[in-house]
Amino acid sequence: MHRGQMALAEMLAGLRSSRGLSQEQLAELSGISVRAIGEIERGATRRPQRETLRALIGALGLTPEEQEAFARTARTAPPPDTRRRRTAARPALPAPVTSIVGRSDDLAAVLRLVQDPPVRLVTITGTGGVGKTRLALEVGWRAASRFESVHGLDLSALRDADDVPQALAESLRTPDPATLIGDGRWLLVLDSFEHVAAAATTVATLLAGCPGLTVLVTSRSPVRLRGEHLWPLAPLSTPDSDDPAGLAGNAAVRLLVERTAAVRPGFALTGDNAVAVAALCRRLDGLPLALELAAARLRTQAPAQVLAQVRDLHGDTVDLADRHVSLRRTVEWSTRGLTDPDRRLFGLLGAFSGGADPVDVEAVLGAPPLSLATLAAHSLVTVTERAGYPRIGMLDTIREVVEDQLTGAGDRDAHAGHFLRLVRDGDPRLGDEQDNVRAAIQQAVDAAPALLCGETVRALTKHYVARGRFAEGRRMLTGAAGAALTEQARAWAWHGAAVTANESGDPEVALALAASAAEAFGADPDGRAATLTLIGNAHKFAGRYDDAAAAYTGVLDQARTMGDARRETIALNNLGALAHDRGAYAEAIEYHAAALRRKRELGDRRGVAVAQLNLGAVRNDTGDHAGAATLLTEAAATFAALGEPGSEAFALALLAQSQAGLARWDDATTTGRRALELARRAEHAQATGLALLALGETAAADGDPDSAARLFREALTFPIGLPDQARVRAHPVMAADR
After folding, report:
1. Burial class (CB in 10 A: 0-12, 13-18, 19+), 530
2. DSSP string, 665-690
3. pTM of the entire structure?
4. For the sheet containing 149-154, what is the strand order?
């Protein structure tokens, strides 16, 4: 970004703010579009045309001295760039909705750093509320044209470094971010890193494996990696005098006036309010967040009134910097004018992590959140739209104060109980509420263990396995095992921790956890059978097939002795899957066919579909693609009718392979694309890999080896089976990778 552009952007924003005009009002007076004014103030426009400058000068009513300075600054900006440029991809970052004030030097410096290829890691540091996130977003949007992709991840809702890789994978919609980024020129913005400081190793691994990646971090403290470039962000400058003539150019004053004018049209700096405005900016230490909160008060009060209310913001605390004390007291002060219902809702919202759906707020509150409009008017919360539904948000800095000062134990427990009920019910919205689920489990573990009944713990295991969040699931379920009040809940928590450990590729730990589960289950037959099945799965994962077969056979014998038909079919399916992995196809077909017969006898519609899917997969590998297609078509239809998109995607991916085996290439392509769409939407990793594999086969058949190889390589980043991996690597289009 040229320095002249930055200076022009800063000057126009300052002149407009000093006149008490919003961008919309200036657009109406000048005849220049709001978009054009916004692009100048963001620095996106290079040198504006003369007609634009004349219109702005006239609308702003500039003095001769101001006109000369404005024109001179405009001349320092570079002329319009007429070269054809490729269109950069839209940054995967929240779009700024307000102008950035008083940060031209910081913005220019950080832009220079992130656009310098040898600089790989830049960290904006500073106290809470100083504007680190706002600066990082501005940098991301302005630097977008210099990168192939700009992607942001808000880490404020996370509390454990182990959750960062999963959060990044979900945000990028890939299980392997390093492979996706590759050698590309990427900018990754990691916001609020101080919450997960130990994840520095994750950042280091990404930087080492992706030579074109630049990471921009916001944090209250350095990341402390080699090659890190720090940019400490200070509060905005505050006025050192009360002279109205000089106040208009002060950064803190400009921000306060501009934000106030946005909610109080016509507000401007005058001789009558200049002293109070200057004192208010000094009292708030130039902290942007504090100034934004004060601007919300100025909507209905005079600057002198607001100043009188904040005179006690500074205390005698000696172990915190003034700006830390000021920020906390500013948030506290902002709540003083709230009614009891307003404060009640505000405190409750502090229990929500990562935002809140009004539906959930009403359920926890026990009444409609009528105070929401008041909180939004005070700039204490935001209400935005996500996927067509309203979403209540709160700045992380504000939430920390609210959670500490206003959120009671009853609210935390009510929040935890609500979201744990949603987990038990399998609510489909939970895919977007992982932050709240995590907060709910942590509250139950820390303070409300009575919420951790056996049913809840089992549902948590299913929740984590379905979403592939194995590391977090193992940690949370281990915590639940230590906190649970009943032996049954403790046993199922150990069992769930073992399941997630095995799914994450750690079978030895899974076996150790399974031993704890077995001890807690005691003589409980259901628990013993589940644990023995888990032990078989762990041995199978570790490649100890004989041990796995012994465990599965033990479950089968126990089920038949007790007349447990459901458990019998599970054992048959597991023995069939084990035989399939070993290449014993005839044995696998025998087991799966037996499971299918038993499921039909029981009238278990879903169980029939599962057995058909398993049997179809084996028949594909034996070359009986016609028989497999019949089974898989029926299974996919059943899963669709039951509302299980992940299972439907799995069946369709296998069906696409059957169709490819029958040389029905058009059908295979259509089915594979549908499977991929469903699998990605349901975040079903294995189905995603199988769908990519099928589409790779159709691309190769269509004479497009490059696309086929790309699809095959992507398929290998997902947990597909060993036979499928071998088939992919042996395909002729993969010769270059061998």
Report:
1. buried
2. HHHHHHHHHHHHHHHHHHT-HHHHHH
3. 0.69
4. 149-154, 186-191, 213-219, 121-125, 228-232
SS3 187: strand
- 3 pLDDT exceeds 60? no
Per-residue pLDDT tens digits for 299-339:
889 999 888 877 655 443 334 344 445 567 777 777 777 88
Burial class (CB in 10 A: 0-12, 13-18, 19+), 319: exposed
Q: Which two structure tokens, joined as six digits, stand for 40? A: 């100048």
pLDDT at position 722 is 66
- What are φ and ψ of residue 229, in 5° steps? -110, 120
Beta strand segments in 372-421, E: 382-386, 389-393
Q: What is the DSSP letter of 497?
A: H
Cβ neighbour number for residue 257 with a 10 Å cutoff: 30
Asked whether the beta carbons of 355 and 393 are under 8 A apart, the reply is: yes
Query: Position of tokens 């003369």?
Result: 50
Q: Report yes or no: 723 and 689 within 8 Å, Cβ to Cβ.
A: no
Tell which residue, 316, 398, 393, has the closest CA to residue 128: 398
Q: Residue 479: is its pLDDT beyond 70?
A: yes
* Secondary structure (H, E, C), 91-115: CECCCCCCCCCCCHHHHHHHHHHHC
Give the distance from CA 584 to its chain's centroid. Answer: 43
CA distances from 3 to 12, 75, 111, 348, 380 (A): 14, 12, 11, 46, 35
For residue 393, what are its two tokens?
A: 């948000």
- C-alpha distances out from residue 714 to 179, 180, 423, 711, Å: 9, 9, 32, 5
Distance of alpha carbon 327 from alpha carbon 291, whole angstroms: 10
List residues bridging with 250 in a β-sheet.
Answer: none
Torsion angle, CA of 612/617/621/624, rounded to 10 degrees?
30
CB-CB contact of 570 with 555 (8 Å): yes
Query: Would you state the structure tokens that stand for residue 254, as one six-digit string?
Result: 């400009």
- How high is the pLDDT of residue 630? 96
Q: What is the C-alpha to C-alpha distance for residues 365 and 375, in angstroms, rounded to an integer?
A: 15
CA-wise closest residue to 400 among 282, 289, 297: 289
Listing DSSP states for 616-637 in one string gives HHHHHHHT-HHHHHHHHHHHHH
Q: Tell me: pLDDT of 85 over 50.
A: no
Give yes or no for residue 410 having a pLDDT over 60.
yes
163-177 as b/e, with b when 16 or more CB fall inside 10 Å?
Answer: bbbbbbbbebebbeb
